[in-house]
Design a protein that fits this description.
This is Glycosyl transferase. Residues 35-62 are annotated as: Disordered. One of its GO terms (molecular function) is alpha-1,2-mannosyltransferase activity. Residues 35-54 have a biased composition (Polar residues). With 389 residues, the protein is of the alpha/beta class. The protein has helices at residues 2-27, 45-50, 81-94, 113-122, 145-157, 166-177, 208-214, 235-245, 256-259, 281-284, 287-299, 301-304, 309-320, 346-351, 370-376, and strands at residues 70-75, 102-107, 127-131, 190-193, 199-200, 219-221, 224-226, 270-272, 277-280, 326-328, 334-336, 339-341.
Amino acid sequence: MPGTQRYLRYIVAALICLILLFFFTSSSSYQTPNWAGSRPQDVSSEHNNAQTPSDKGLPQAVAPGERMNATFVTLARNSDLWDIVKSIRHVEDRFNRKYNYDWVFLNDDDFNDEFKKVTTALVSGNTKYGKIPTEHWSFPDFIDQDRAAKVREEMKEKKIIYGDSISYRHMCRYESGFFFRHSLMLDYEWYWRVEPGIELYCDINYDAFKYMVDNKKKYSFVISLYEYVETIPTLWDATKNFTKHFPQHIAKDNSMRFISDDDGETYNHCHFWSNFEIGNLNWLRSDAYMDYFTSLDHAGGFFYERWGDAPVHSIAAALMLNKDEIHFFNDIAYYHVPFTHCPTGEAYRLEHKCHCNPKENFDWNSYSCTSRYFELNNIPKPQGYEKEQ
């Protein structure tokens, strides 16, 4: 009897071992549930990372249709790299990823490899890098250097912005009369100027270049304001000297009333802010504009005063173009320190995913000239503009 009990204990123990062996064997083939924070053990780290949304390479939604003969253009130095990349991201994300236009970068020195590598990686179109000829970024031989130096000292004492800067004067002269003649720019008919540190606040769901072409526009703006009087004391005198000698260049249906309150006797200092502009390069290369620039250049005001390219472009557009050839892009939301253009109209802002604060919109500020543009062209102001005054 004791032997029988011992035999039964052996059988029970064996059965228990078999059961345990079966349990562990089957459980080893069972995959642990992928609870939050865990990963199946048979999935490699590399494969798992490849499935994350950031690495799927979602395709860009490129807009169909023809492209205009157009480019973005930026005047920058190597030290501006991390400011211009912000601008590029805004332009690409809000507009150019859908249209893939080229980008021309101009510099009075050679661009370094880092600048080229980083900016090329960000632009969806082709990038081109050009060096400005020395003769376009220097004092012309007819400028009295002593007189120019004295003016800079006087402006410094008066604390006039950029009043003592030589490079700023070269920049204003270059943007006024030379950028559109650079060899890289000769390939294009239209340009969109982009400066380091700007922002675009709304999606742009149409081709702004094509809009200019289809509607026979030649110059456009988003912000307008009054120029610093101290920087251009004789600009209007030089302009009247030009109109006297070249009356054939003045358009019949011009915008004189935008820039003068007394039919051209004096300048009211209104101008389009040229750090944003979309325009026609053939107009800038025309005899009319080139005669104007040459006349101003020989007057010496870029160096004897501190004439900016904004009033130069603006006066030229106001006098030489018909009113309907100048366009205000209310729908291109834009920031350049210290002013903001935030489109007037809540419905538009919501539809186009704008992230600007309408209370910061400069358009209807007393120092803005945009109301003059609307009145000159008999255009109704956008609904709700009164709330932004």
